[in-house]
Fold each of these.
Amino acid sequence: MIYTTFAAFLFILSLSTLGPNRLRRQAYFPVLLTMFVFAAFRYKVGCDWSGYYYQYVAADYVARDLIAELNEPLWWIIVEWIKAGDLGYPALNIISSAIFFAGVHVLARRQPDPLGFLVLLFPILVVNMPMSGIRQGAAIGLICIAFAAFMDRRPIRFAALVLLAGGLHTSALVFMVLVPLATGTYSKGRLLVAAGLAIPGLLFLAGGYSTGLAIARYIGTGIDAFGAVFRVGVILVSGVYFFVFLNKKWSEKYPQDHSLVNMGGIAMIFAIFLLPLSSVVADRFAYYLIPIQAMIFARVPFFAFKLSKWLHVILPYVALMTMFVGWTLASPLFEQCYLPYDTWLFGTPKGSILKEELFL
């Protein structure tokens, strides 16, 4: 299968070239470009392909109303712009993927190992977001840039980027609670302020149309996100691992981004408590934390361990690959949404009735 083969190739490439070397540096941009092309130029691949196509078709009729209500206006502006330019529905996937990978690149270049960071994103985040949930995927890209602003202690820039991400997917606005901590002053007092802001912040989100719709659809309805318990569980384990093995080491070696990863670790542990409320809500929140998870595991080779350092380095790759293979083999939804993989780069894929079908 193309997905597991590509993931295995990326993991082997990353593990076999560990350490500062020319091949690792040279591989980063080809891997980034390949992932972008793989996600952006797919054809009828992804669980939300039809859903976003309907948004594209309906943009002429509903976009202005939604923009007037300030409900995810940036997203609808993009959709309306594509329609006005007669660019065709596939352009929506290209633009959303470009935003996602541009954000990933901004955060990756802050890492001592950009390739490892990028590779660790593929099995869960890349396949699920820019290849399916493209609106949240684009929002995650902007949140990655916001994380970089957080590391730079630029709260105004951080807040502006979070607001822009919220214009794509309302769920991103939850990160506004971190604004008091983006100044670089990481204290109990500021943590309390952030916690205090979380309550009205969540109430504000609940008042939005999309969040209200999500609550109506997902909370207390019995609708579940298939695999959410595994994805949120991996996030939980990642947070616990950080606090048990890396927290103190990180604060000493990488103080500039310790507060971000520390807050991310707390959020990873907190996400598990959202599962009883709604697996869908927990799953969506967890996706925003995967870049921080990738930061944690890509940074492991740069720390000293008393025993079995190789085990610390290799286990994240083994765990993610095992989870990914299990998902691709056991999930009927994966087969329905992602198989077969087709692309329109080389013409209309086999099975299309009309060549023009691509640009309906």
Note: Residues 240 and 269 are 7 Å apart (CA to CA).
Amino acid sequence: MRRTLLCSALLVVSFGSRSALAQATPPVAQPDQAPPTVQLPPELPVDDPMLATVARPRIEISTWEEALRHVRARSNDLRIAAQEILRAEAQSRIALGGALTTVNGQATYTHNIITNSTLQPVRSGDGLGFRPVNTPFPDFVNGSLVASQPVFALRTWYAIGTAERNESVAHLSLEDTKRLIALNVANSIVAVVTAERVAELNRLGLRNALTRLELAVRRSTLGSGTGLDVVRARQDVETARATLVAGDESLRQSREALGLALGIPEQVGVPPHVDLNGLEASARTSCKVAPSVDERPDVAALHERTEVARRLVNDAKYQFAPTVDVRSTVGTTTIDTGAAPNTTWNVQAVLTVPIWDGGIRYGNLRDARAQEVIAGERVEAQRRKAIVEITQARRGVSVAEDRRRVATQTRDLAAENDRLTRTAYLEGRGTSLELVTAAQALREAEIQLAVRDFELVRARVLAILAQATCPW
């Protein structure tokens, strides 16, 4: 320990003597030679439990295809959208069933508790006789089979086409769900990589703050520093610790958000060697840019909904149309009256003309017309929103590039300022406040540059998915 303190003292004295010599003898100007740069001493070894990195999660994804496999297997939104398609197909089958033949059977057993016994004439051989008969019959069974076929049913036939339109809406909604899922997964992956980098920079900042604290303590021990220098260095360390704690929690939350995006209820990480440029290329491969904003899945789905609303207006009008059905009934009974046959079969043509229902059909027509207007307004609002989103996404790439360029220049200036401030502090020409301020500015500039780097990748992915269809 004494040898270390002695070496530090000699180092400080050496820098002090050089500074005094430089002030006593001004250097001769040499335009052909660059001014000598002061070599900073090597960083002091520091150790702290908070310098340990956050534990890696159990599950990590390294490629876009791997992320999509998780989504296909676990995404709740994707499954719900797929089930909506099945529901629409089921409704189409129901609409078709309304135009096909229906067959229904019915059987009843009746037991009459109160009956009356009478004598009824019956023919017996060549004569006429009488027999007792209970009226009504105490026990009997009736059975019938009814078949019905619509012959003229405009509303029923029209409903088949409306159901098919609803199927198209469900398919487009699934495509838009895939687009939003892809965008969410891409943003979550970039957020995890960003949080990883920020956490790494936070640890580097804490390590540098601990190094400066060690230097300030040694200077104070040798008498060349003050207690204020030590306090300021400790404040810088605690500020770095607070930033580190917040960054680690942000990293954990980013991993959990990625897990939810993939359908996994736990943290999901991204390996340090992941290639974000490959992520952009994979997203471009799995999702194709739509030819126009009207063909973006969400806008196209609303266009189909507008068509469905228009058909509902016609459906309400067809409620006023008459219908014609052909029905056939086969019935049998155990009642033997002696006159009518036990089994009967008939065919009927049924004309149904709606005359008055209290105004229900007129209310349905007004409601359908209002829904048509609402659907049209929604598609126009979504179209305007989509146009702005696409414009902002494309402009966001150039904005992200400009921000990254500014952040790079800011980081370079902050690094040079930190180097010069440390040099001046070692030579005794700077204060601990300037040292701490320069260090904090450098930490913030490093973090901002890392954030801007990944924001550029996010902006490029968003520019691809803002007007895209994802048939994966």
Note: Strands lie at 59-60, 102-111, 116-124, 127-135, 139-152, 268-269, 288-289, 323-333, 343-352, 468-469.
